[in-house]
Design a protein that fits this description.
Radius of gyration of chain B: 17 Å
Structural class of chain B: mainly beta
Shape of chain B: globular
Mean pLDDT of chain B: 89
Mean pLDDT of chain A: 86
Distance between the termini of chain A: 28 Å
Oligomer: heterodimer
Largest interface: A-B, 42 and 50 residues
Strand content of chain A: 35-45%
Radius of gyration of chain A: 17 Å
Helix content of chain A: under 10%
Number of helices of chain B: 1
Largest sheet of chain B: 6 strands, antiparallel
Order of helices and strands of chain B: HEEEEEEEEEE
Distance between the termini of chain B: 28 Å
Number of helices of chain A: 1
Strand order of the largest sheet of chain A: 1-8-3-6
Shape of chain A: globular
Helix content of chain B: under 10%
Order of helices and strands of chain A: HEEEEEEEE
Largest sheet of chain A: 4 strands, antiparallel
Number of strands of chain B: 10
Strand content of chain B: 35-45%
Structural class of chain A: mainly beta
Number of strands of chain A: 8
Low-confidence stretches of chain A: none
Low-confidence stretches of chain B: none
């Protein structure tokens, strides 16, 4: 089985990305400031007016020499009432391809004993969870991507922040060889 | 052993004549279904297309995957909805029950009379704070191929008393999956 380094190289090569780049660990995130009762969120689609702590991207694609593998997805809910322990529905799309479909990450929230993987679960938090993916999902350079999250709990308050974070192996631009 | 989840998916797909599954999008997948009326016996995923989110996430396809979509089940978990709306849920520890279940794919029972004992597998978890409601399948897992119906029949029982227990119940299947991709995997 290919590991994430091999898979990233394989996909990049298939797409004609020949630059070697600096290998790195990549974290990208986006935060949505909610309206009261909002139950559907789109991430990595709108970056206007966001601070550097709300999103570390300015467009919904990686630069021409950058790519990454999503190995882990973390979600943080800035709400006391609408929590991540209730059923969720997460979809991630890269290009026109749905790469994570109707996934419910809520099982990794809190310590109810139902987590997919307790090593990466949210322990006793119902506002912060992480899911380690079993497969490497590549975001190639210059390809749009987005995440859509639906909550079942309608109690989100005005101005609560919902943040999604992708973590994994990646490549960033390097003018020469790797350092 | 040495076989990965992906290897097993491709091996089974090849034997079933699914020659294009190897070109599909690899993913991490889970499906779940829940029933919020307490009962002694629950059948999950059959008829789940009638149960909308948050009761189930299988959608219109119900208890079978689309063409070239599949799931290698690596973990089976059970949970207990706390209300009739199915929004919130707890683990088996919340009601102190275990679950005896059969898992059927097509016309074949692939897991027979197994139990998800309350607190089993505790040693495999890092926190160990709450009794587990999840079992890891031994070996690599079991593949649900495309367009084949699957379901789980489950019965709750008191973990200590070993008596039948009427409960609300839900079930999830988690593992490595494949999603339909018309071109090549990215």
């Amino acid at each position: 089985m290919a590991n994430q380094v091999q898979k990233l190289s394989y996909v990049d090569n298939k797409l004609g990305v020949s630059l070697p780049g600096q290998q790195t660990t990549r974290v990208i995130y986006d935060s949505v400031n909610a309206t009261a009762g909002q139950q559907f969120f789109q991430f990595f689609t709108n970056f206007a007016g966001k601070t550097e702590f709300q999103s570390n991207l300015t467009t919904n694609k990686l630069d021409s020499a950058e790519s990454m593998v999503i190995k882990s997805v973390q979600i943080i809910m800035g709400s006391a009432l609408c929590n991540l322990a209730d059923h969720l529905n997460l979809n991630i799309t890269v290009g026109n391809q749905v790469v994570l479909k109707d996934f419910d990450p809520s099982f990794n929230a809190t310590n109810r004993g139902v987590a997919y993987d307790r090593l990466h679960s949210g322990f006793n938090s119902n506002t912060n969870l992480e899911v380690r993916l079993l497969t490497e999902i590549v975001i190639p350079p210059q390809v749009n991507f987005k995440a859509e999250l639906q909550t079942s709990n309608p109690l989100l308050a005005l101005n609560d922040d919902v943040t999604i974070i992708f973590k994994g192996y990646g490549r960033i631009f390097s003018a020469g060889n790797s350092f | 052993m040495g076989m990965s989840a992906q290897d097993k998916m491709l091996n089974v797909a090849s034997r079933l004549g699914l020659t294009t599954l190897k070109d599909m999008q690899g993913t991490t997948r889970m499906v779940y279904d829940s029933q919020t009326t307490a009962a002694l016996t629950h059948t999950f995923f059959k008829g789940a297309s009638q149960r909308a989110f948050p009761l189930s996430n299988v959608g219109a396809n119900g208890n079978q995957f689309q063409v070239n979509e599949a799931l290698l089940v690596e973990k089976i978990g059970f949970f207990v909805p706390t209300g009739a709306d199915g929004i919130s849920y707890t683990g088996l520890a919340g009601v102190g029950v275990g679950v005896k279940f059969d898992f059927v794919i097509g016309n074949k029972t692939v897991i027979k009379d197994a139990t998800c004992e309350l607190g089993g597998e505790q040693a495999f978890y890092s926190d160990g704070a709450v009794a587990s409601s999840v079992i890891d399948l031994e070996g690599v897992g079991i593949l649900i191929p495309p367009q084949v119906e699957y379901y789980v029949i489950a019965k709750c029982y008191g973990s200590d008393s070993r008596l039948a227990s009427s409960q609300r119940l839900g079930c999830y299947l988690f593992g490595t999956g494949a999603l339909l991709n018309f071109n090549t995997t990215i």
